[in-house]
Every structure is written in C-alpha cells, then in structure tokens.
Amino acid sequence: MDQAESGRTGTTTGTATERPLKILFEIELPDNCSCPLSDPDADIESVHNQIDDGICHAEMTVSDETGTARVLHSTNQVGDGCLCLAFGEVGCVPRTRRVDGNTLFIETYVSDRSVISELVEQLQSAAERVRLRRLTSRQDDETESEPATVDLSCLTTKQREAAILAVDEGYYRQPRQTTLDELASTLDISKSALSQRLNAVESKLATAAFDP
C-alpha cells in the first residue's frame, strides 16, 4: 500500500532531521467524524492529503469488488477533530496503512520517545480511541542494520500509560531523571502498583522482542 501523507508541515523549509522510530497506531474515529476515511464505500489502497487554508484536500485510491481502481477526491473543512492537525501539532506526517470500517491504521515516524506521549495526547483529543500497535526502531549497535520490531498490542492500556510516562520522564535513562515515587504520584497509584505494571511491561516486551 502506498503511503498517505499530509501536506501540513511544522518545520522550517530546508531542514532535515533523522527519525529512527516508526510507530503504528490503531485509531478509532468517532461516529460523527467528517473525515472521508471514516466511512469508505470501497477498499482504500492509498491516501494522499493536504491542508490548505483550513481545507483538507484528500485523494483516495480505492478498489471495488471487481478490483477496478478509482481515485476519489474530497474536500472538507478542517475541524478540531482532524487527525492531520493532531499529527501536525507535533510535526509528524501520518501515513494511512489500512482502513477497517471507522478504524484507521496509521504509521508515522518520530525522532525520539519523548514525542510519543504528546502525540498520543493530541490524537486522543480527536479520536474515539487510540492504541499503540507497534514501535519499530534501529538497534543501537551500528553493525546491526536490521530493524527491531516490538508489538505493543500485548500491553494493557494502564501498562502502556505507565511505560510512556516512565520513558517520557527519563526513568530508563542513565542516570535516572525521576523515581518510582514521582511517577506513581503522577499516575495517582501506589509505588508497588506502578512497579508491578512496569515489571509486566518489561517482561512482555522482552518476550515479544526476543522470543522466536
């Protein structure tokens, strides 16, 4: 499937930065969503969109039951619930990989993990439900060029919330920039409960990454 890209950018023209982390989101749109992707009348093969002066122009390549491809063009007024705006607020470019009813599977790249929690927060303000399905990054070892992929669907909502906060606040950095007590206070749970959640996260992700 081709990539779906937003034409809205938040960076200075002529600059380029590496983004080694690839995230796949499963995003459920609300029933009253005006996005043309929320109720497609055919299988979507690719999407390209661009925001210009408050108007979202989208071109969707779709195929019908006979396999015949068509290109549909739509224009919609950009509202507060536009996913493209949510991605644009943190300078990310969405790429629609699959559409299943009112659920979108959208991929994007980020420069570091600190952006993930901000992006999730922006998406949650526009979507009915947001789920991190997969995080792919390059190995730290420079001799290893193959990507390491971890499926995040094995984590519960509370485990993902705890993990994102811990990474965002620098709990896994050396030296650590926060403590379990501080993280637990932010989540309004006990230190032992947070410790159990993070232990479960580490166990699940280690198994997902290295279990053949």
UniProtKB/TrEMBL annotation:
Domain DmsR-like N-terminal, chain residue ranges per copy: 23-136
Domain HTH bat-type: start-end pairs: 155-206
InterPro entries: DmsR-like_N, HTH_bacterioopsin
Organism: Haloarcula argentinensis
Keywords: Transcription, Transcription regulation
Superkingdom of origin: Archaea
Pfam annotation, one family: HTH_10
Protein name per the record: Transcriptional regulator
